[in-house]
Write a structure and sequence with these properties.
The protein is built from 5 helices and 11 strands, in the order ββαββαβαβββββαβα. The protein has 232 residues and is an alpha+beta fold. The longest helix has 19 residues, at 99-117.
């Protein structure tokens, strides 16, 4: 509840991003629950289909179909542990390679995140987390800074995981940071299985984002910055 006793506005966004390389429909709710009323009808239709990266519970709806299975898997982990409802459909030029699809999906996700977040008042602003996956351990640190910057070091050694090039995995995180206008440091500290290293990184990021975007009781309307603004 806000300070005047009313419920806070939904932190959600929907967008469609069409280029010659990719056609993306996306909807996000940072607090789980329903999607915006202006969600693209093509995306609403896709929610009726079950996929390997689909999950519905009382608090979240997740449905991902980018055409790249491992990217879907990573975004599923991100949404699940960040507490988002997230739906994405992408039709990309995968006959060329995975680059445009992976990059554009993560840019679009960043744009939608920033739009859903709105003016970052009353929030923790900073978040940090560690997440293990068996032998792998990753750390993520996030600042809702309005200064897009990322340092990503996952130490991946394979050429591909599934149909996603390993070189694209850090680039996906960088693309998200750029679109979301956040500062992110994501490091895999140890691990010998690249699937585990990547997934632990996305899970750590999810928990850090959930912390950074959490509302702080008693600080409603306050900007968590000595500058007095995080939008300029």
């Amino acid at each position: 509840m806000s300070s005047n006793g009313t419920s806070p506005a939904p932190r959600w966004a929907a967008l469609a991003r069409d280029t010659n390389e990719t056609k993306i429909q996306l909807a996000i709710n940072l607090d789980g629950g329903a999607f915006p009323d202006d969600t693209d009808s093509r995306l609403i239709e896709s929610l009726k289909a079950e996929g390997h990266a689909s999950q519905s519970s009382k608090s979240q709806t997740i449905s991902l179909n980018t055409g790249i299975g491992f990217l879907d898997h990573m975004l599923h982990a991100l949404a699940k542990h960040a507490g988002w409802s997230l739906a994405i459909v992408c039709k990309g030029d995968l006959h060329i390679d995975d680059h445009h699809t992976a990059e554009d999906v993560c840019i679009a996700l960043g744009y939608a995140f920033a739009k859903a977040l709105g003016t970052p008042t009353g929030l923790a602003r900073f978040g940090s987390a560690y997440a293990p996956l068996d032998e792998a351990l990753s750390r993520a640190v996030v600042d809702l800074s309005n200064r897009p910057y990322s340092v990503i070091d996952l130490g991946l050694k394979r050429e591909k995981i599934g149909d996603l090039s390993c070189e694209m995995i850090p680039h996906c995180l960088q693309s998200f940071a750029q679109g979301a206008r956040v500062t992110m440091h994501v490091d895999c500290l140890r691990g010998f299985n690249d699937h585990h290293r990547a997934e632990s990184a996305f899970k750590a990021l999810a928990v850090a984002i959930r912390q950074a975007t959490s509302r702080v009781a008693g600080r409603e309307g306050e900007v968590p910055s000595t500058k007095g603004t995080l939008t300029a």
